[in-house]
# Entry
Amino acid sequence: MKILVTVKRIPDPDEALKFTDGGLDYSSHKRVPNAFDEYAVETALRLAEKVGTKERQAEVVVLSICPAGQRQHVTQFLAMGADRGAVVDVDEDTLDTITVSKAIAAIFKKEGADLLIAGKLSQDNEGNQIAQRVAGLLGAPQACFASHIAWDKAGNSLTVQRDVDDGVETKKIPLPAVVSVDLRIVLPKSVQNGVTPADHAYQEGPRLASLRGITMAKRKKVATYSLADLGLSSSGTEQEVGVTAPPARAAGQIVGSVDELVEKLTKEAKVL
# Structure
C-alpha cells in the first residue's frame, strides 16, 4: 500500500499576531508544522510498520504545498520516518482551497496512492475543507475526524471510528480512500494494522525524530512540482477581503453584594 499524507507549515500559534492595514503581518513570524498533520503522519507510520522489526507493509509519502526553499517541515516528517516527500512549489498563501485540493488530488493520482491521510483541519484557518474536497475530486470514499483506524489487508478496507455526541460512529470503507484524523488517533491503541500485535501500546502522541532519523532524512528523496506540471493554475475563487482585530473588551465592574451581582446578571447581562 502507498499512503500519501498532506502536511502544512503554519504561523506559530504560540506567537502573537500583528495586525496591519487590512491583514496580518507574517513577515517576522516563525512557521511550524500543523499539529493535526503530525497526527496524520503518526497514523500513517503506525499503519505501515510492524513493531519490533524493520518490515514495512506500506510506503509513506508526505506532500506539502509550499515554496520549495521553505520545506523544513517536510524534512521533519521525513525524520519521523516517512519514506519520501513531494512539494508543490508555490506560495501557499496565494492559493484557494479549490486549487490546493486539485493539486493534492493530482499528486494522489500521479503517485498511484491507495490512501490519503490528512489532519482534520489546519490550525491557522480551521477551514476543514481539504480532505472532503479531495475525496470529491477523486470520487473516493472518505471518513472524517477519525479517532481509531483498523486496516483489513485481506479485505482491502479500513474500519474507521469517530467520536460523536452520543457515542462512537463506525464506518467501513474500501481502498483507495481519504481519511482525516482527529487528535485521539494518537492514543496508544488507536491504530491497528493487522501485523503489529493488537495489544501493543504506542507512546501517546506523535513520535519524536531520532538522531538517526534526522540524519537519514537528508538522504531521502523529495520530488518538486509546479502547478503547471500538474496541469493547474490558481482559480482565485476565494479572496481575503480584510482582517480586523476583535473589539476591545469593556472594563469589568465591581459589585458590592451578591444581591447586586444577581440583579446585574438578570437585568443588564440577561444571562439569568
Summary: Helices lie at 35-48, 72-80, 97-111, 130-138, 211-217, 258-268. The radius of gyration is 22 Å.
